[in-house]
């Protein structure tokens, strides 16, 4: 999935006003950051005011799919031409950065910001493919080990699609950047790594006895 | 910090169109979700289009502070009366929810959505207090063990403030909600807990030899 080459073209919406040295338009980097996340934050405008909601998503090629509920406001508004202007942001926190000075404290992170116009997925076949992708995005391999959605469930599933065109990544790595005159201060400085890990699977109360947890649920950190 | 009582008053912006049974306006719950996060997602409107950016934040009482950079677009726009309409969202992922049916897959999460008008913090004294709070929000106890910001650094720090008034929390807990007719399917179902953990501290390359990591950096999950 991450053998993409080339870069997205920067636009006025994807060149940050600050921190340009941390920005990247590399397609493979953007894909890897998107694919490693669980939840995105979906932004849209309601009556002139911003709204930001967490939701599930999945990428298929150069298209991003965002999960919603039929009847929810952004889904309804996306149905009217030409679609709903959205901003979808995915962020991973990698480390806390402790400098000697309060001012230079920071965090290491990887983020992707996607600007675009979202439209609802209506074709049942595409919807079925997307629902599988949403499930596999959270637990790779899971869609093949579950009952597929029927026509009624597909009708009750709402998904927005947007193209990956106006896209940028931003990454901070490395240690603290203390000022030279602070290096002799007695305060500890460095990084505290932060990771997302899985615990042991917890069976549902009504799981049939003897049903063992599948191989794809091995505990560990998100790859 | 979490001994707050009472609730926020629901408004048209904080009553979800879907999933109302998961919504809460409980002040102590909102505070606990905000205080447990590292990064928020800040949404604002730029030329009619939504923008969502990850950034650091801290809560002091009923006021939320969001970190920015002087010169960045939202900070500049917030300086013009009456301020910048924003939506600040904080989300914690707690578990992956695996149902027998693809349709009922979900995640357990806790989120808070804050709507409001952000204004820049300009008083140097408040700014110094906020910078301490931002540092302590990421690493409790750290601000007292670092060099405080000087006047030049405070001038270079940009912080937005907004009141916690239009606020709601949303929480999903518990196992999968499979349909009765799916309970006998052979697929494993249950939860995969997800946690954020700290790794061992990594000293800065230029840390003076013999400087040991402080007690407040004990490895472990976020409380």
Automatic annotation (TrEMBL), chains A, B:
First and last residue of the signal peptide: none
Disordered, as annotated region: 199-223
Protein name stated in the entry: Pyridoxamine 5'-phosphate oxidase family protein
Lineage of producing organism: Bacteria, Bacillati, Actinomycetota, Actinomycetes, Kitasatosporales
């Amino acid at each position: 999935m991450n053998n993409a080459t080339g870069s997205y073209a920067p636009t006025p919406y994807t060149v940050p006003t600050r921190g340009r040295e941390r920005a990247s338009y590399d397609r493979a980097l953007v894909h890897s950051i998107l694919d490693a996340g669980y939840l995105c934050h979906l932004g849209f405008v309601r009556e002139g005011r911003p709204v930001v909601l967490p939701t599930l998503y999945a990428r298929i090629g150069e298209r991003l799919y965002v999960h919603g509920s039929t009847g929810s406001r952004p889904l309804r508004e996306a149905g009217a031409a030409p679609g709903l202007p959205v901003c979808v942001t995915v962020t991973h926190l990698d480390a806390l950065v402790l400098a000697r000075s309060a001012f230079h404290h920071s965090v290491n992170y990887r983020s992707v910001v996607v600007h675009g116009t979202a439209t609802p997925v209506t074709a049942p076949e595409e919807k079925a493919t997307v629902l599988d992708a949403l499930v596999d995005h959270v637990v790779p391999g899971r869609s093949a080990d579950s009952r597929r959605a029927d026509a009624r469930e597909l009708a009750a599933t709402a998904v927005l699609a947007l193209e990956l065109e106006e896209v940028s990544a931003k990454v901070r790595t490395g240690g603290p950047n203390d000022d030279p005159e602070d290096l002799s201060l007695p305060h500890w400085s460095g990084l505290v790594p932060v990771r997302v890990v899985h615990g042991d699977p917890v069976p549902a109360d009504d799981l049939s006895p003897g049903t063992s947890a599948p191989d794809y649920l091995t505990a560990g950190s998100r790859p």
